[in-house]
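Co-fold these.
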Amino acid sequence: MADNTVYRASTTAPVNIAVIKYWGKRDTALNLPTNSSLSVTLSQKSLKTHTTASCSSSYTGPDTLVLNGELEDIQSSKRTQACLQVLKRFRRDVEKKDSSLPKLSDMPLRLVSANNFPTAAGLASSAAGFAALVRAIANLYELPHSPTELSKVARQGSGSACRSLMGGYVAWRAGSAKDGSDSIAEEVASVSHWPDMRALILVVSADKKGTPSTAGMQTTVETSTLFPTRANEIVPKRMAAIEEAIQAKDFPTFANITMMDSNSFHAVCLDSWPPIHYLNDVSRAAMNAVETINRRAGEPIAAYTFDAGPNAVIYYQEKDETSVAGVFRYVLQAVGGWDGEYGAQIRPNERGGLESKTFMTLKAGVSRVICTGVGGGPEQTDQHLVDVGGRPVTA
Amino acid sequence: MADNTVYRASTTAPVNIAVIKYWGKRDTALNLPTNSSLSVTLSQKSLKTHTTASCSSSYTGPDTLVLNGELEDIQSSKRTQACLQVLKRFRRDVEKKDSSLPKLSDMPLRLVSANNFPTAAGLASSAAGFAALVRAIANLYELPHSPTELSKVARQGSGSACRSLMGGYVAWRAGSAKDGSDSIAEEVASVSHWPDMRALILVVSADKKGTPSTAGMQTTVETSTLFPTRANEIVPKRMAAIEEAIQAKDFPTFANITMMDSNSFHAVCLDSWPPIHYLNDVSRAAMNAVETINRRAGEPIAAYTFDAGPNAVIYYQEKDETSVAGVFRYVLQAVGGWDGEYGAQIRPNERGGLESKTFMTLKAGVSRVICTGVGGGPEQTDQHLVDVGGRPVTA
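Predicted complex below.
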């Protein structure tokens, strides 16, 4: 008697933006990093990946993934295969212990995934993507593993994905074991511990796609003469200091470390051979604006950070909304995004003392904003992207 | 019987552009550097300071300096005073040994100085300026000191000035003595050893003056976490390697070290707190153009380097003139400077494979070029900027 049931489970997973940057692998197959990192998980109201994992003995052919309506080639993606194989093994272990369970591990998977933000925004979606993939399959398979245990799986898909399995403030411990067994993510503070952290993202139009981060970080590991100092000496100190700042909700310290670590990361990129540039004149104008805002305030009330691209992410606390986001809203009133989460409440401030060049460069170079803040981890949902017949649901 | 003679001596002194950068002082009063550096002295046909030192017992009042027609306040310039006091002491020692000599050390100095390039070009003129000042006074005083001995004096005026007292390829040894007695410049190779080194300077219009180098380098020393590695570990290795490359006239090695050291210097600037930015999008377009030219050639035939500003200095060998300078001449045919020394002979090449963005950014951002090359040290001249009556000569 054939069981033709389509088993389904769905989740959403958040984007995270590091304040201590992950840059450099000590093992490229297992995605083991050269240094620990720490990120803030961002609210899923603005940015999330929604993924449904389904399986059925009625499915034929190999496992498939439809991402934003397009069939992805996951057969030749070592990273995706690594995740799927580990999760199927975990399910097999569960099935072995209880023979009454359906043999999901033998059924082909149909995965459907969609982002609620345009890929064109230039935001790294792979973290949310792999976190959602792993979380959805873990839900489908009813795995008993904790988010931290699953973080080892997600890490193999995309390093920073391990940090998107939790909400709030998340550390990825580099670990030292060769097999990666101690390279795990863990929540260092929950959203509720420090809920008023906001993030304003300035989306900067880049004329061309820069160096992909996977290639870039290995160029840095192999060629930057300053990188070992960063990875071995500087980052460990910053990790300890920023965790303390987060526990104490000490924003000025959090801000300074965040900005310094972003600069250190881009410094080792410039010190790579050939040099890697992610920051452009618009990014530097955003840095300058934050410096001006902080100087005016007499203490750091805003912190910029930049990933592998020119977009600025500016952290601030809700109480400083007008002094920080209000200035950017004044400068960038013409661009889209102010109607999103947390955006509507931001009142345009005056110019905030910005130099005319900074003002003009931001105005000309920022194409949209995203108004978000710290948020929770993946959320299970009944909204499935695969129908009961196993067909993708068009959004 | 009063001797009213106006004693005069004149010299020109060159600009130098470092390939291993001086950035950071271990003693700010004596201008002692944290690391050794190495530069190429540039031809004085394009860039020089012309200085006349004069003294006379008929002069009244304090020592004066007229620079480019403007009276400078040298009384409150500790750096200038340091140079003048040491040189007067040297003269006094000479006079003590031979009482027949006129007592020039007791006479007020009138110094007149002029650059053959506009200050607006954004080229650091302090190196040529202090080298010319020291050399002119040493000539006036008929001091027996060698250029290397005088380099200790010029260094107190402006660190990099010590390298402008010699031609060709000049090393400034950081030294370790507290009094700076071993912090000296010396020629590591003469112009004639490797005469076909050319330099194309792309003058980039900066919208505002960036961080002054004296302040900037101390910010780096005090705050950059990556700086100690650069100063203590990386630069010493590069100094040895580039000296070897210069002796062997090995341009590819010379070029790679030059570019890497420029990047390392700007990396520690970015790693400073607050971060220091000298490179802008036009600078990065110049780097990109050099990378493209080198990739096309299959080996490094051009080397960029950037001082404390956005201007690019591009070194190449005369044999590669068309492949390097010719590409820039094609892109920048509309700007001035191609009629200068070495410029007239540069034939416009085709576009050289430059990406359209690089092409457009250079075209929009470079305001003029200077076509120069390696050159000799200071040259004594009979063209005095002070007349026999002690009055400044208007050029």
